[in-house]
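Notes continue from the previous slide.

Worked example: a multi-chain complex. Inputs as given:
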Amino acid sequence: MNRSALQPGLFIALLGVAVIAFGVGSVHIPASEVAGRLFRAACGRAKGDPADQILLTVRLPRVVLASSVGAALALSGLAAQTLFRNPLATPSIIGVSNGAALGAVAAMLTGVAAPLGSFAAGLAVTALVFTLGRRGTFFGQSLLLAGIAIAALCSALTTGALYLAGERLPSVIFWLMGGLWQANGRAALVMLPISLAALVTMQALARTLNVALVGETSARDLGVNVPRMQHTLLLLIAVTASAAVSLTGVIGFIGLIVPHLLRLALGGDHRRLVPATALGGALLLLVADTLARTLAAPAEIPVGILTALVGAPVFLWLLRRKATL
Amino acid sequence: MNLRVENLSFAYRAGTPVLRKLNLEIAAGKVTGLFGPNGSGKSTLLRCLTGALRPQCGAVWCGDHRVGTLKPREVARRIAVVPQDTPHGVPLTAREMVALGRFAVNDEAAAVITASLVRVGAAELAERPFDELSGGERQRVVIARALAQETPVLLLDEPTTHLDVARQLELYRLARAMSREGRTVLMVCHDLLLAPLFVDEAVLLRGGCLLASGGPSAVLTSEHLLAAFGVGIEVVRDTSDAVTVRLAKHP
């Protein structure tokens, strides 16, 4: 595969899918009109007709949110894989996703705003895992073990909360399945800067992340301030994954398969891998979300089901491939 | 740039010291071999020399700088390390692996990377995935990475482990050539057959203490080796005073 063509290719595909996503739905907006309507709105000269209303208040936030969450999930997956030097690591392996899900469920059952509870719980769980894991000689390994234990604990508490949910059970379950039906302008405006900040941070750290691939001891010998790098990555994973889960529920497999597939295509150099991962994650979730809201319209399939349906076979294929290496 | 170890003690756990009050001077322009049985503290000493481990007492000096006060990047500009084990599961090509050696100087000069690969005889491996290389090839690429750091000090932790006898000889010659360019080369050695022929100085450790140091013929004597390893080893010297060892009693 031509490595240099992949990044522009992903960008063009993302723009193309975005145009389609702007157009499809209960009210069809032709692709030829989408750019013009968005441009006029940006200049403050929107027509204000129903099509404009739908485009600007429903579909634009949804496309922005899907792309930002997709990029955030993929980048946090890449950060986790590099931090743990394990191509199968994701933010959920250190309990961030499960913690954020538990926070959301607890918030919904107690009447607190779910995104707030979820985001706070995701950060709190990461802080707890960090505190428990920092004593080990090999930070990555002890963090991973603490994370697995805390993730299991959060999962058990979430199940317990569901058991006690009573008549609110369906709405909580629906939230847990993951989806973007609650997308709005505010959510998009929160998520977009977080994703961009994650992208800029990881791109700035790209050379350090390359050195991190050889392990903690050698990375230090080559000049990396290993604790600082680990703390930065951990904070980045906590913020991006918690924010994503708090706004869209648990959407699986993007953090696992996007960095992994792109690593197969581009190699391990993070200077290429980071932007491609952000674009790939944005593209995958935008495609999945567009399918999720159109395949069974007017009903909406939780997007987590679609990403897992695609992700699980790919994951198994990766495991088989790994076994034969 | 000389390395100086002053009164160095290190313990992973309180009460069980791994290094005890070591004093050493490792001179520039020479190959120094670090000998000793398993667990005598050789690798731990190497990690103290780079500041990766903080000694409980004593200090390591690299030229005029106390290693403990330098940042990792500053250490990496002075000291390059070839670790005992080569990494696995690294999704980089051999060339990208060598380029990591340029991290501390923030300059991935292509000429330096190529020259380093050529110097270890790995130029043809440049575009191959690191993980697909044999153990010996990986070892050579990691040595090239250390060369690409262009440091005045080179530490090698059992660098001949994965190499066949021809490659071992090449490595010893490379170490010697590096030292003749003025570098300080310290090499942890397990091999008592070839290493003594190539080192200018030898340091023998036992139980974290210095048993002997000096020229290889003065250090690697039957008495010292018996004391260090607990095995009777006959040492033969040829007319040029080069040391050749063989087991005194075959099992």
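Summary box: Residues 57 and 238 of chain B are 42 Å apart (CA to CA). Chain B has nine helices and twelve strands.
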